[in-house]
Write a structure and sequence with these properties.
Oligomer: single chain
Shape: globular
Keywords: Cell membrane, Membrane, Transmembrane, Transmembrane helix
Subcellular location: Cell membrane; Membrane
Membrane topology: Multi-pass membrane protein
Largest sheet: none
Number of helices: 10
Number of strands: 0
Strand content: under 5%
Order of helices and strands: HHHHHHHHHH
Protein name: Probable membrane transporter protein
Organism: Streptomyces lasiicapitis
Length: about 240
């Protein structure tokens, strides 16, 4: 990475990880398009996965008292499996098709959420979890599907953020491992992640502080704002 690009990366990291620690997800909404713009699509997506994996490790530590291991285990495992498949298929995946699939899945899931179709929601959560990982490997972002999959676990705000942090950590770590093996990530990328580590702690602290100060209604609004942001970004890419 060219030295003059580092300030752009640091600014994107600070904004992305503060949002991520506040809502539990949403970091890729800012980080992936920024890094893809300055580094190129594949390199940007790969570095974003590495940075997000490191940040999610910090988030898991920050929310260590509200990590719903049992309730989130199936969702996390399916996100990991989907991420592995998606990362392997990054080179051949038609991005337009993936984008349309994510939007269609989000629209269907939003409809189910609105109509409160309990049986479908129970079935749909594992499906969305696997699709979240797979589309994340294709496009670098899985926020709408992952957010809805974890939301179906019926957790309170802090446990929801904890579950999202664990699912994101496993998914991003899986992608980073696959792309390191494929040489999309190099030693220089890991050095950038190491340099960004102090910034991750500060951003996570600020995000968690904000999360604890807003009520349930405020968090619900933040959650759906992030969801709308993901969908808007996908639509603009068509």
């Amino acid at each position: 990475m060219e030295p003059f690009l580092l300030p752009v990366v640091f600014l994107a990291v600070a904004a992305a990880f503060t949002l991520s620690a506040s809502a539990g997800f949403g970091g890729s909404l800012i980080l992936v398009p920024t890094l893809a713009l300055v580094l190129g699509t594949k390199s940007g997506v790969a570095l974003a996965a590495l940075l997000l994996a490191a940040n999610n490790l910090v988030k898991v530590f920050a929310y260590r008292k509200t990590l719903p291991f049992r309730k989130a285990a199936v969702v996390i495992a399916l996100v990991a499996a989907g991420s592995f498949l998606g990362a392997k298929l990054l080179d051949s995946a038609p991005e337009r098709v993936v984008t349309l699939a994510v939007i269609a899945s989000f629209a269907a899931a939003f409809l189910v959420e609105t109509l409160d179709l309990t049986r479908w929601r129970r079935f749909g959560s594992p499906v969305m979890a696997f699709a979240a990982g797979a589309t994340s490997g294709f496009s670098g972002t899985s926020g709408p599907l992952k957010g809805l999959a974890v939301r179906e676990l019926a957790l309170d705000r802090l446990h929801l953020v904890g579950a999202l942090s664990m699912a994101s950590l496993v998914g991003d770590a899986t992608k980073a491992a696959v792309w390191t093996d494929a040489e999309l990530l190099t030693g220089g990328d890991y050095l950038v992640a190491l340099v960004c580590l102090p910034l991750m702690f500060v951003a996570t602290f600020l995000g968690k502080r904000f999360n604890t100060r807003i009520g349930e209604r405020g968090y619900t609004g933040l959650f759906w704002t992030v969801m709308a942001g993901y969908t808007g970004r996908l639509l603009t890419g068509l």
